Amino acid sequence: MVKGANVELTALSEDVGSVMVSLGWSSPTGEGDADVSVLLLTPDGKVRSDADFYFYNNPVAADGSVQLLGKTPTADGNEDRITFDLTAIPADVEQIIVAASRYNGARFGDLDDVRVTLADGSGEGLLRFSIEDAGAVGALLFGELYRRAGDWKFRALGQGYESGLAGLAQDYGVDIDDDAGEVEEAETAAEAEPEVVADSVAVEAVEAVPPAETKAAAAPAPVPASAPLPVPEQAVAEPVAKEPVEPVVKSVPRPRTAKKKVTLPKVAKRSLAENDSWRAARLFPVSALKSDRDRETRATSVLLSVMAQVPEFGRRLTAEFGAPAGRMETFTEVSLPNGDSPRRPDGVIRVERAGKLWTALVETKTNGNSLKPDQVQAYADIAARRGYEAVITLSNDVELDGSPLVDVKTDGRRKHKVALRHLSWADVAHQAQMLIRHEGVGNAAHAWLLQELLHYLQHDNSGCHGFQNMGPAWVPVRNGIDDETLCQGDKRAVEVVENWERLVRQVCLRLGGELGQKVLPVQRAKRGTDPRVRREALADQLCLAGRLDSELRIEGTPGILALSADLRTGKLRTSIEIAAPEQGYPLTWAKRLVRQLSDAPADLHVETLLVGQTGGPRGTLERLRPEPGDLLPKNNAEIAGFRLSLFRSMGSSRGNAESGFIRSVDEAVDRFHDHVVTRLDRSPASARR
């Protein structure tokens, strides 16, 4: 589409009762980002109330008509996705604005390939609008959905707002609290009062307050005592509690959109058991599971029952698959006609909305078992014949872009389309963690149900452990690298690269669920590159260098966490590069850095990065503590920054046992994040790169 153009959705697809809008962009540095927002407007162009403004601290409409899904990895990096159940949009809402905003003075003109796409309920892309003239604006209207003669249309906008998200929100009638304080006052107050949230109530926020910091205040996850509460420029933390509380400080205008949510308590209640041999009774026991079939049946029933009983959770898992918001019922061991031999999918999900039914068949695998193509194909055929909307597969495996776990053939003669979707058990556990530990659910019973589900999924006997095996090619590839017999073009190297990517994505899910922050893999490949071509190039690089490399962007940290597995030396390296401060003296920088790392491991390697040069001063933290000046170059070269690295031996086996490679990667990332990254300053200039 071109700027200003519009199109009727029903002219593009029959399945537009629910649609998915995706916003994307890229950055020359690989670190640019923005926050997505949605406004529901009446015919007079204003919101009905502040509740019609959806952003990271108010991501889901009560009726399920709008849901911000956050960032999703794609072949070219990641994109922000929003689902709209257009059948559930209130009748007095005539226009839906989709926008995004940047922070800390950043502008959309600094980003490349700014775009918006729209897909129908089956996931088929319908339109794309590229914004080539974003300019020096802090907020940008990407597009709008609007009603005409009872049908929904989409218009490509590409309109910028120099005043940022606060100005945009005000123009559309969002209530703004405009008695602002000074930035310095906000920073002082925030450092003095790092805890201002009562009863797990979310802090209000808008343009300048990143979601990571809002969640950090509201979530039960502890903030290290050595790290002051991060407050970016023009930030604010205003408490919302049952009892009147004096506000710590006020800041730039922002909407009042706080909502009370129930999360797990910070500290578990003291057990009344006499000793550790006493085990608490669980809602979902695992002791009786003896076979893979038992595990599959139990896991399916447990998951589907919780989805039906906890609306926030069920909606979260099905919204991205095109399901409407409505009454959900789930079933197991359903028999469906299929010629002479009926088929029995592991489960069925049905959602009713305005008299219409959305149905998905569920096929489950546990304990590392692979999905069977003929089985999934049969369910896809049955779904097409019966008019069902989707087939959802669940397994420990992680699906990659361009490499589907199961190839399913579709009959082009059939008008009805069936979407094939995959969830890993790691995805399910991540969503449960985000709700009960950080974002909250509607009541305590829902939180308890999700806690029981999470306990079940994480139990060794459940079989729902996520990706836990680097595959049969792992040992031959390691041996080939060790004796230098592995050649470029070897398909086994591609398999190892694919499994490495699966592992890194799972690490991001696990860490993000624990922190309550976005953790995403960084893709440095040129946008538009075929994922298979990219993996083949990485496999050739593995053959030459003997090393697997990845990068993780953790929201709220001052840099990118780099992860490297050297198969020649058997060493894992975790590292982060931090830029040198813009002001001050090099010796002051070095002393301050060493002081920040006072509790970091003594074997931490610190290296000075020089502008236009390699091989700057370096040493272990143990050696540098008494002499931080050893980090300064002898020739007075300009310092670009510092690189911090930890090394450890990687596991020898391909699995997740005590000596396994996957467990060693998890432990390496956790140790580096907990003992190094959390010690670093999260200044406003660097915390949201």
Structure characterization notes:
The chain contains 14 helices and 23 strands. The strands form 4 sheets. The protein has a 7-stranded antiparallel beta sheet with strand order 17-18-19-20-23-21-22. Helix 4 (292-309) crosses helix 5, helix 5 (311-319) packs across helix 7 (425-439) and helix 7 (425-439) packs antiparallel against helix 8. It starts with 5 loop residues before the first strand and ends in a 14-residue tail after the last helix. The chain has 689 residues and is of the alpha+beta class.
Helix-strand category: alpha+beta
Note the gap between the termini. Answer: 30 Å
Largest sheet: 7 strands, antiparallel
Strand order of the largest sheet: 17-18-19-20-23-21-22
Task: From the alpha carbons, calculate the radius of gyration and give it in angstroms.
Answer: 26 Å
* Amount of helix: 25-40%
Provide the low-confidence segments as ranges. Answer: 178-259, 683-689
Percent strand: 15-25%
Shape assignment: globular
Number of strands: 23
SS field, number of helical segments: 14
**Chain-averaged pLDDT:** 82
Summarize the structure.
By secondary structure, the chain is α+β, with helices and mostly antiparallel strands. It has helices at residues 164-171, 183-192, 211-218, 292-309, 311-319, 373-386, 425-439, 444-458, 474-482, 491-515, 531-545, 586-596, 621-624, 661-675; strands at 6-8, 18-26, 35-41, 53-54, 66-74, 77-85, 95-101, 112-119, 125-131, 139-148, 151-161, 327-332, 347-353, 356-364, 390-395, 419-424, 519-521, 547-554, 560-566, 571-579, 605-610, 618-620, 639-649. Strands 17-18-19-20-23-21-22 form a seven-stranded antiparallel beta sheet. Strands 1-11-10-7-3-4 form a six-stranded antiparallel beta sheet. The chain has a five-stranded antiparallel beta sheet with strand order 5-6-2-8-9, with no helix packed on it.
